[in-house]
Each structure stands twice: as structure tokens, then as C-alpha cells.
small monomeric GTPase (Gadus morhua), 167 residues
Amino acid sequence: MAKSPEVKLAVFGRAGVGKSALVVRFLTRRFIWEYDPTLGKKHLLLFYGDTENDSHEDLQQRESHMRWGDGFIIVYDITDRGSFEDVAPLRSLLEDVKKPKNVPLVLVGNKCDLDHARQVGTEEGERLAAEMACAFYECSACADEGGAVAEAFHEVCREVRRRKAVQ
Ligand code: GDP
């Protein structure tokens, strides 16, 4: 049977880290996605959800979106250390919910235009990503000059495709 061309991508992170801003930034430049020769033309389904509330229903919802997704972006805000501290538990939950482990994942430190208010160093993000064995991008949904936002989305999609190819 032909494989589905869809990539289901879920974006997680504390409320206010910039998930919707990143998704809008990426989608409004979606021509890059459509014409990227390494990716081909694909459908992309996106979901993004906050991870701040810990009621039973919220947790169940989060887990069901984790089961739904093929690939994941975990976002923190470089000006909010609490959002960075959310990352490791979120990744543990992802590993518990998704089996087999080692899911396609990218870590994004957003709002790097606000360097004067930085609470999380670049090297801390790099170290955490190395521990989680995933790619890491610092970017800004508001001032995405180098295209790092699109690159983060592309990387997780490429990772999904790599995993599907070896299945
Ligand atoms: P969400 O709750 O994670 O979806 O966060 P939003 O996308 O709604 O963003 C929360 C706030 O942060 C909004 O006021 C955004 O304008 C702002 N924001 C998002 N990304 C950036 C960024 O890269 N730089 C700056 N300076 N503000 C951002």
C-alpha cells in the first residue's frame, strides 16, 4: 500500500512561548516548503498545544495529540526559564506515549530577537538538545531574518521521512 504523503506535526510548549507565531511565520512562507526539492510536495497537518495546565483532561488531550503526531517541535522562550524547564518533562512524556522511543523531534528556543531579556543561554539549549539527541534552533517568529523558523519545520519533516523510509 502506498504510504500517506501527510506529515502530522505537533508543536508543544508553555503558553506564550510563540507557538502560533512560529506556525504563522512558517505557513506564510509555505512556498519554501512546496518548492524544497529535498522534501517534495507534501501535505502538512499541524497542531499546537500549551503544556501549562495539568488537569486530568489536559494531560489526556496532550497524550492523544502526541499519539496523533508523526513529528514534534518543542518550543521554549529564551526569555522565560520556566518554559525551558518544561522541556525535559515534556520530552519524557513524549517518549512514554510514543513507542518506539526516539521520535522525530526538534527543539526551538524562540524570541531570540529579545537577547537583552535572555534567561536561557544558547549553549544550554544546545546541551539539552544533545541530551535529547535532536536538532536545535534558536529563532525569532517576529524577526526571522535567516529563515531558521522554516529550517526547524523542514528538519522535523525530513526526520519523519527518514524514519518512515527505514521502517
Ligand atoms: P503561544 O501561546 O505559544 O501560541 O504564543 P503566541 O504565538 O500567541 O505568542 C505569545 C506572545 O509572544 C505574542 O505577544 C507574540 O507576539 C509574542 N511573540 C511570539 N514570538 C515572538 C518572537 O519571536 N519575538 C518576540 N519579541 N515576540 C514574540
Observations:
- Residues 13, 15-21, 110-111, 113-114, 140-142 surround guanosine-5'-diphosphate (CB under 6 Å).
- The beta strands are 6-13, 43-50, 71-77, 105-110, 135-138.
